[in-house]
Structure formats: C-alpha cells, structure tokens
Amino acid sequence: MRNELHKEIINDYLNGESSIKISKALGISSKVIRQILKSNQISLRDIHERSQKYIHDENIFTSITNDAQAYWVGIFYSDGYVTKNYQVGLCVSTEDIEHLHKLNKFFKSNYHIYIYKPGKTSYSNNNYCRLLIKSKKIVDDLCRFGITTNEKNPTSIINDLSVPLKKGIIRGMFDGDGSIYYTIKKRKKKDYKEFAISYTGNLELVNFFKKFIEENNFATTRKIFKDTRAKDTYYIRIQGNRQLKNFLDFLYKDVNESCYLTRKYNIYRELCDFINNTTSFKTHF
C-alpha cells in the first residue's frame, strides 16, 4: 500500500503537479510529500522552474508533412507516451540525453530536461532523463495518429503517407525500440563483425515493422519471438550484413542529424565502414 502511494505521488509530481496540489489531493502535508520525493531520488523543482512560463509549438503535429514530424511520431509510437492529464513525454537513458535536446528543439520549447537516479518505483534501474510537455492540442493530435494512453497503432495513418514520410516513422520506431549490434567471429583467421538488428514491442507494432521490411524487400523475417522477460512483448531479429546495410541505408543515409539517435547512427556507420573495408580487401587481393 505504501509503495503504491509513493508511486502515485512520484507519477503526479513528474507529470507536473506541485507538491502542494498533491498534498491537498491526498490529505498529506507538503513537507511529507517532498520527503517522499527526495527519498526516491526525485529532484525537486526550484522557485525559478516553478514560476517560469514554458512555451512550445502547439501546432507541431497538426499534420505530418516532413521528415522531422514523421520521425518524432515514430518515436512516440515506441518510447514516447501521452497521459490523461494532457502531457506528452519521453524518457531515455542519460547516455542519450542529447536526444531530448533534439526533441525540445523540434517542439520549439523551453521545457526543462530532468535527470533522475534509479529508485524502487522508477522508470529504469539506471540514471535516466525525461522531457515532459503539457499540451492538450499535441496530445489530441497524437491520438489522431493512433497514440493514446492505452495503445499505439501506426496503421491508422501509415497507408496515407508517402514513402519518405513512412521512412521517418520507421526510423523513429527503430530508434525508440530497435537495437543494432554485432558479434565478432573468426573467418579465415581474421576477425569478422556479424551485425544484427532487432525490434521489440507489442505484437501489433512488431507485426507492422515485420510487414514493412518484407513488403519493401529489405529482408525476410521468419519468426516473431515472445520476450519472456515482459508481458505482451515480442521481437524480431534480422542478420546478414549486406541486407542490414540496405535497410539501414534506407533509414539513415542523408538524414539530418536532428532526426536520428546518434548512438545507433554511429553503429550504422561502423557497419558501412566494415563492409567498405571488407570489399576493398577483396578487390585488391
């Protein structure tokens, strides 16, 4: 019961409610509310932050007409979320805090990015950061695109978009819930990097991602796997350096740096360099 109360207090505070408002709603003194927040490593907002007037572009998602809009909608299909209090948020590892600065710039906003330490009721077991923006208009627009508090369904809009815009949405989904990695194996006594990608999500999102890859002849994904570590979570995995490069070229080649996750883009570049060096070696052999 106590943990549930703490979780409610933390969620309300992180969703923008003041400690005074929370204390009135729960019948607990604001001093106790602040003590609970501190004990869970939640940074308290200072006077400047509480009084500052925040700004953002209300009409940023009125329609999807460019790569940036498509990309960030894709992010919200994966890592992002909306709340019943008309807030739109994104949490990432502190390793990727630059990505939240990109999102803040996209929203044309001056909202603060908060950094949190892991706690018993926290989003992550590692340090993480969060950007949270309050806007009924933005939440309503995202709901039109199939992003609600209960579900995420890209099929409601994807068929009406051009290929370049679909590319942005798929890149956002992959940057949010995809992964790219490699293992080193021996081939003819030389180290060989064998790259792979995976995409994780609910069954509907994974099926959507799988169908897009197959219909565009990037690869054949034979099976959808059940992730036993989480409820209602599935994933696909694709291997083969050259077919992966074709798919990742489609996602990342000639894309503005404001519309990709730098960490994943750098591994894509590592794949390109590895293939180029391998091809060069064969040519000069």
TrEMBL record:
Query: Which Gene Ontology MF annotations are present?
Result: endonuclease activity
Output the InterPro entries linked to this UniProt entry.
Homing_endonucl (IPR027434), LAGLIDADG_dom (IPR004860)
Domain named Homing endonuclease LAGLIDADG: which ranges?
167-249
Q: Which Gene3D superfamilies match?
A: Homing endonucleases
- Pfam hit, one: LAGLIDADG_3
Annotated protein name in UniProt? Homing endonuclease LAGLIDADG domain-containing protein
Species this chain originates from: Clostridium coskatii
